[in-house]
Amino acid sequence: MTTVSVSHLTKDYSLRSGLRRTPLRAVDDVSFDLLPRRTVALVGESGSGKSTIAKLLTRLEKPTSGSVDVRLDDGTPVLGSVYRRQVQMVFQDPFASLNPFHSVGHHLARPLLLHQRTRGTAQTHARVLEMLERVNLTPADAVAARRPHELSGGQRQRVAIARALAPGAKVLVADEPVSMLDVSIRLGVLNLLARLQREEDLAVLYITHDLATARHFSDEVLVLYRGRVVERGPADAVILDPHHDYTKLLAQAAPDPERLGKVVATEAATDRTGIDNRVCYDHHLGTWTGADHPAPVPG
Ligand SMILES: Nc1ncnc2c1ncn2[C@@H]1O[C@H](COP(=O)(O)OP(=O)(O)OP(=O)(O)O)[C@@H](O)[C@H]1O
């Protein structure tokens, strides 16, 4: 299993205005740990530094100071290509993150081959179908042949999740993974992430504006304000009994957490049966496919 220690992470950018350059501290002395099967939620308003932390974790950016230390159970540091394989990101925009010219199958086969998870066409194709079934995109062979624009937003995000897992991810950085999806399908995608987390022992960083889902899908919440963590603790404590004025403001602006909590709990209970809680009728495939829309009400 894999653990991440983020220690005193700081990132400065330099903003150009005319001939002058103004320094901007986007992330300021942030520390936290990500553990297998645990989720840390990073909440904060736009510009508070959430995505910069995601980029630092996935090595898309280098820190100005501080460190991101990833290790296996026995203390071996995770470096180089193993780091790139194990630390994966799910992006906010499922429309922009998939290449419209390539099939769904290609999107999944590429990381499998690149990270040498499979060998040869037959084994790769079989694994692609298996990955699609795991994210409830069935019939998998028909989905694999499609291009991203032939899928709904929720289905595309499922492909993006499967693609992140394909190389053998152990740490998932989910940057607003459902904020661009229709409200009615968000819980299905979050429940899918929660199930995959249990099955794969994933450590998850869940970046969101949404306090209700942060509460129900995470163990610890970090509240970020202008790059600094201003409040942190167990999810229930931070969101139901906030101490910092900024967290209180965020909580006041959020929809009623008790009401949303009940909705989430119902969805999660259904998910525990092992059958995904949502299905939809796919007119292209001519069949019911998983977990994007509310199940039809009988009668
Ligand atoms: N490459 C960059 N160059 C300069 N400034 C940047 C760069 N990336 C981010 N910033 C600045 O750093 C600050 C933090 O941005 P960041 O994208 O991390 O915030 P965020 O909390 O993720 O916001 P959002 O929720 O809108 O995505 C912002 O002021 C942003 O303008």
From TrEMBL:
Domain of life the protein comes from: Bacteria
PROSITE patterns cross-referenced by the UniProt entry: ABC_TRANSPORTER_1 (PS00211), ABC_TRANSPORTER_2 (PS50893)
Keywords noted in UniProt: ATP-binding, Nucleotide-binding, Transport
Gene3D superfamilies reported in the protein's UniProt record: P-loop containing nucleotide triphosphate hydrolases
InterPro entries per record: AAA+_ATPase (IPR003593), ABC_transp_ATP-bind (IPR050319), ABC_transporter-like_ATP-bd (IPR003439), ABC_transporter-like_CS (IPR017871), P-loop_NTPase (IPR027417)
SUPFAM superfamilies found in the cross-reference section: P-loop containing nucleoside triphosphate hydrolases
Keyword Transcription regulation: no
Limits of the ABC transporter domain: 4-251
One Pfam family recorded for the sequence: ABC_tran
GO MF assignments: ATP binding
Name of the molecule in the record: ABC transporter ATP-binding protein
Organism in which the protein naturally occurs: Kineococcus mangrovi
